[in-house]
Automatic annotation (TrEMBL):
Protein name (record): ADP-dependent (S)-NAD(P)H-hydrate dehydratase
Lineage: Bacteria, Bacillati, Actinomycetota, Actinomycetes, Propionibacteriales
Cofactor binding, note field: Binds 1 potassium ion per subunit.
BP-aspect Gene Ontology terms: metabolite repair; nicotinamide nucleotide metabolic process
Keywords: ATP-binding, Isomerase, Lyase, Metal-binding, Multifunctional enzyme, NAD, NADP, Nucleotide-binding, Potassium
Enzyme Commission number, as recorded: 4.2.1.136
Transmembrane segments: none
Family to which the UniProt record says this protein belongs: In the C-terminal section; belongs to the NnrD/CARKD family. Belongs to the NnrD/CARKD family.
Coiled coil (residue ranges): none
KW ATP-binding (keyword) present: yes
PROSITE patterns: YJEF_C_2, YJEF_C_3, YJEF_N
Amino acid sequence: MRSAHTVEQVRAAEGALLAELPAGTLMDRAAAGLAAAVVDLLGGAYGRRVLLLLGSGDNGGDAAFAGARLARRGCAVEAVLLGSSVHEAGLAALRAAGGRVVPGGSSGESGPRSRPDVVVDGIVGIGGRPGLRPEAVAELERHRGVPVVSVDVPSGVSVDDGRLVGPHVTADLTVTFGTHKVCHLVDPAAAACGAVELVDLGLRLPPVDVVALQAADVSSLLRTPGDTDHKYTRGVVGLRTGTAYSGAGLLSLAGAASGLAGMVRYAGPDEVADLVRAARPDVVVGAGRVQAWVVGSGGGDAAGEDLATALADEVPVVVDADGLRHLPEELPAGTVLTPHAGELARMLGVDRAAVEGAQLEHARRAADRWGAVCLLKGRRSLVVAPDGRAAVTSTGVPWLATAGAGDVLAGLVGALLATGLDAFDAAAVGSWLHGAAATLASAGGPITAPEVASAIPEAVRRLP
Ligand SMILES: NC(=O)C1=CN([C@@H]2O[C@H](COP(=O)(O)OP(=O)(O)OC[C@H]3O[C@@H](n4cnc5c(N)ncnc54)[C@H](O)[C@@H]3O)[C@@H](O)[C@H]2O)[C@@H](O)CC1
Ligand SMILES: Nc1ncnc2c1ncn2[C@@H]1O[C@H](COP(=O)(O)OP(=O)(O)O)[C@@H](O)[C@H]1O
Ligand SMILES: [K+]
């Protein structure tokens, strides 16, 4: 599992370790990891040109000490000072190793003489306010096209919530220390990090703020049938979907009927039930006892009634699409809401752009507001529980942004709820498998929603 911590948690853990270790140990570990990552990126050190952008804090210190290591290995290292002051010990080490300070801006002959092979962003780290000063923006602009390695975080992003407010660095690689920060996992900032490499500092960390499940976590959470199981003990998922748009109903069914639950019931209108019978002989048509319901996908105006009927059953419910227009004041704790950014914006009475710019904050707001798990769909879908747990989905490909993919997800999460996973785990595991199925189905090319559903069993088969 990848875990992310807040700045406050990181500082506390660093403080405890700093008190035990000789001065400079942590920064030395950070600089060693950073220098090694830069050498890996460049494919070697000797003769490579490295440009350091140094701010005034310890982030610049990390970059300067890493620059000293790179200079000792034969890199030509130059540094532009962008802060009101500079980490003096780091700068001294850099100079002693043969690195030199050059003026920033377009100062011509005394500026860096040739195009660097890499820019190291040590402008600000976890102590930075969001945004960048104009000099930093100009310097980055000047080296546009050169690969950027960010130290700890891309300077200028909002570290604790993944927001982007104002100018920021867009990195090819971010080398972070001790633990991931929230901005490495949560969009839109996560998209500005590029690849993320973690350097161990030996921190003792408190419980995490945000996690990203990995294949092994999904494997251990997923309920696999045992020798004594039968279809009812494995769980029955019911669907009241597709009342207005039968296609969405069939797609939610395809997600639910991927084999994870013991049985699937379809309890929608007769016209759609006929289509279901023709398409899926394994699905039982008609209402009956279930362990979880899925409502809303393609539901149209009937979604409110479908939701009320499902809630009356007092089993966990997935509320998708049109169902999200009809939420009661409060929902049972087992409920999973599956909005995309537009739907969440409407639910909260804000603009879509506000949700897209502050995804964690808005998903948390919805989880609090309705006392339910909120699965906010997007490039890195977020799952947030009312108790504060949060998970980011790292699987998937942009081809997954295709009509009906969300209906498949709603069905899949319903099936997982029916197997007995709690609402948070069902949403996080479902979202992970949905992305993994999309990646498999895509293999680099376009995909359709039915193909995503068909690839779910293979995604499960490939789990460790
Ligand atoms: N605390 C520790 O023990 C360790 C810290 N490390 C490094 O230290 C960093 C944190 O260092 P600091 O606490 O000194 O903070 P930073 O280096 O992140 O930034 C603080 C400085 O930047 C200025 N600043 C803030 N926002 C700015 C902005 N938007 N534009 C320009 N300047 C801005 C502040 O006035 C302050 O002088 C971490 O990100 C990491 O790189 C690592 O060396 C590992 C160990
Ligand atoms: N850029 C993207 N990259 C990867 N996945 C995406 C991206 N945009 C959306 N998705 C995923 O695609 C699916 C789209 O669902 P949704 O918006 O509900 O579509 P529909 O209502 O047509 O089913 C969601 O699972 C979402 O996480
Ligand atoms: K940085």
